[in-house]
Amino acid sequence: MTTASGTRHTSEHSADGRGGIGEIDILWISEGMSCDGDTVSMTAADQPAIEDVVQGLIPGLPKINLYNKVLSPTLGGEEFLAPFRAAARGASRNPFILVIEGSIPNQNIIEGDGYWTSFGNDEDTGEPLTLNWWLDHLTPHAWAVVAIGTCATYGGIHAMAGNPTGSMGLADYLGWDYTSQAGLPIVNVPGCPVQPENFMETLTWVLYHAAGAAPPPPLDDKLRPQWLFGRTVHEGCDRAAYYEQGDFAKDYNSPKCQVKVGCWGPVVNCNVPKRGWMAGIGGCPNVGGICIGCTMPGFPDAFMPFMDEPTGGSLSATLIRPYGAFIRRMRGITNFAVNQEPKWRHNEPALTSGYDPHWRS
After folding, report:
1. Which annotated residues bind [4Fe-4S] cluster 2 (predicted)?
2. Which of 238, 187, 240 has its CA nearest to residue 217?
3. Are the CB atoms for 193 and 40 separated by under 8 Å?
């Protein structure tokens, strides 16, 4: 595999006859406009855990070298920056996956001196190196690029209307047609923060692809993993049957459908109600929270003000009520009927179950 600078990674990186990569770096930059919440969330994953991936406990993966400021064993400074600087020069020892956390500010709108966010300093001038500089120098050499969290994928909170930074998602910055050295588009794993297993499962798929053991991960038109974001919150929600029956919560203490109190679940692509949050537990509607659409490209503007009834919620609730009332009544009748024991279950001398051994004379 040849990098954009013409540097060829040698055959020592081949894992086996499949022609896969035997050792790969993960360069993780969280200096986008963010709260580092995605890194914190990722540490809660256990299917697989980041520790298992890095320690080589997952069969078939390449050897992993992770460079993340929260999880780094270095003291920081130049020791931590060394692999990033080498990669930016096109001189990385191994192929690398670039993980970006946080939205990308528009550096072009600043007049004169100044910057929005930086990562390290220029070795010659001592001036801060902006996130934009790193993206411009790293992405041409990256084997794959992964955006973690809604800020990095679509801009998120920092990109909402009225912001002064011009923030955007990674695909907005690099172009939606960007492809990496491996021919992969940007892999977007949204969430505010990201659901831990969603990210680790996706990263593991990318790593298996690097090892030559799996095809590229299937992505939708918003570059999200299809198997994770191909269904809506509503389709996996514990409360969905209440919607079908036209039975809606009037406050947040109710176990019923929360569409009338601000839940956007019927139209939001997310698997959290099915997957839970940590160890299969939680997931916004499962624990009484409404869905505010945090995995969606239109977040937050399209879903504000939060806790107000969603657009179309009143109409859909009105239309479902007659049908729901009828269904509830019919189910109530059937429920009553099947809650009765059959009359032949008794302790009397005559058998009344209808037993009829027809093969006997």
Report:
1. 234, 237, 257, 263
2. 187
3. yes
Residues 159-217 pLDDT 10s: 999 999 999 999 999 999 999 999 999 999 999 999 999 999 999 999 999 999 999 99
Question: Residue 137 annotated as binding?
Answer: no
Beta-carbon contacts of 298 under 8 Å, excluding residues fewer than 6 positions away, are 154
What's the rounded Cα separation, in Å, for the pair 41 and 193? 7
User: What fold, for 231-337?
Assistant: Cytochrome-c3 Hydrogenase; Chain A, domain 2 (4.10.480)
Element (H, E) at 229: helix 226-229
270 belongs to an annotated ligand binding site: no
Cβ atoms of 33 and 147 within 8 Å: the answer is no
Tokens, residue 359: 């093969």
- The pLDDT score that the predictor gives to residue 91 is 97
pLDDT confidence tier of residue 317, bands split at 50, 70 and 90? confident
Q: For residue 231, what are its two tokens?
A: 């269904």
To the question of whether residue 346 is assigned a binding role by annotation, the answer is no
Sign of CA dihedral 41, 47, 53, 57: positive
Separation of alpha carbons 117 and 168, rounded Å? 13
Q: Is 284 annotated for ligand binding?
A: no
Residue spans per domain, the chain: 11-228, 231-337
Q: Tens digits of per-residue pLDDT, 256-289?
A: 999 999 999 999 999 999 999 988 899 999 999 9
Q: Which of 261, 229, 259 is nearest to 241 (CA)?
A: 259
Under CATH, which architecture does the 11-228 domain have?
3-Layer(aba) Sandwich (3.40)
